[in-house]
Design goal:
- This is Sec-independent protein translocase protein TatC.
- Forms a complex with TatA.
- By secondary structure, the chain is mostly helical.
- It contains eleven helices and two strands.
- A two-stranded parallel ribbon has the order 1-2.
- Helix 1 packs antiparallel against helix 4 (82-111) and helix 8 packs parallel to helix 11.
């Protein structure tokens, strides 16, 4: 294929991905009641699943520190077109998140023909695992990281006379940022997989810099969570586990690359 043909193929992949995003965005826009009352505003209510879970676990383990009260704040809209604007922008973000697996599949369909047959075979299932990790990270961010941040920040007071009246845009920005950040952080094993396939990273390097990685993880957890030790630990644990899983993935990829290189050397020696 010529360069122009590649651009034409890429254009149609982008168009199909854009159509999927528009479809999911439109569906989210039309499902306004579910999108905002149940999904977006869920963490602002006392009956949210996460708060009830932490309260039950706190009672079972006799740990009052896990008890989470209803976030004490009122949401406010201070702009004439604020609610309409947030309806459109939030629907677009939800559409992007829902269309991510299909969008990645379209990108993969464009990239895959440029790989060698053995690279295509070794990368089988990439779309599935990328999508699964993204969904797991998104759910973790929505049900764990975001509620912890919202509950802490909304309940924090400098003085009892100061009321928390949170702007709608600030609340939704916190919720979406936390959820999407966790979704992309959970892609760490797949990122390591592709870097290991390219020979840019090895399990030995990851083990050598494990302590440095843990420090980076703690910094990331501190950024995406409120300055409260419990929520930081809850977010840090799965990321550290993902790092350890990534080391195992890099080790498997490294062994496969070594085996393939030995087979090719044997074939070349046989031909010679």
């Amino acid at each position: 294929m010529s360069f122009i043909d590649h651009l034409e193929a890429l254009r149609w992949h982008i168009i199909r991905a854009a159509i999927a995003i528009v479809v999911f965005t439109t569906a989210a826009f039309l499902a306004k009641d579910f999108l905002f009352h149940d999904l977006i505003l869920g963490p602002s209510r006392a009956d949210f699943w996460t708060y009830r879970l932490f309260n039950q676990v706190g009672e079972w383990l006799s740990l009052p520190g896990l008890h989470m009260d209803k976030p004490s704040f009122d949401l406010q809209n201070r702009q004439m077109s604020g609610q309409l604007t947030m309806h459109i922008s939030t629907s677009f973000v939800v559409g992007l998140a829902l269309a991510f697996p299909y969008t990645f599949w379209e990108i993969w369909r464009f990239v895959k023909p440029g790989l060698y047959p053995h690279e295509q075979a070794n990368s089988r299932g990439a779309v599935f695992f990328v999508s699964v990790l993204f969904i797991i990270g998104l759910l973790f961010g929505y049900y764990i990281a975001a509620p912890l941040s919202i509950n802490f920040l909304a309940s924090y007071q400098l003085d009892a006379t100061i009321e928390n009246q949170i702007d709608l845009q600030s609340y939704i920005s916190t919720l979406t940022t936390m959820s999407l950040s966790c979704a992309f952080v959970f892609e760490l094993p797949m990122i390591v997989f592709f870097l290991a396939k390219a020979g840019l990273i090895t399990p030995e390097i990851m083990r050598l810099y494990r302590k440095h990685a843990i420090v980076v993880v703690l910094i990331i957890a501190a950024i995406i969570t409120p300055p409260e030790i419990t929520s930081q630990i809850i977010v840090t644990i799965p990321i550290v586990l993902l790092y350890e899983v990534s080391i195992s993935i890099a080790a498997v990829v490294g062994r496969n690359r070594t085996k393939q290189l030995n087979e090719r050397l044997a074939e070349n020696n046989g031909v010679a």
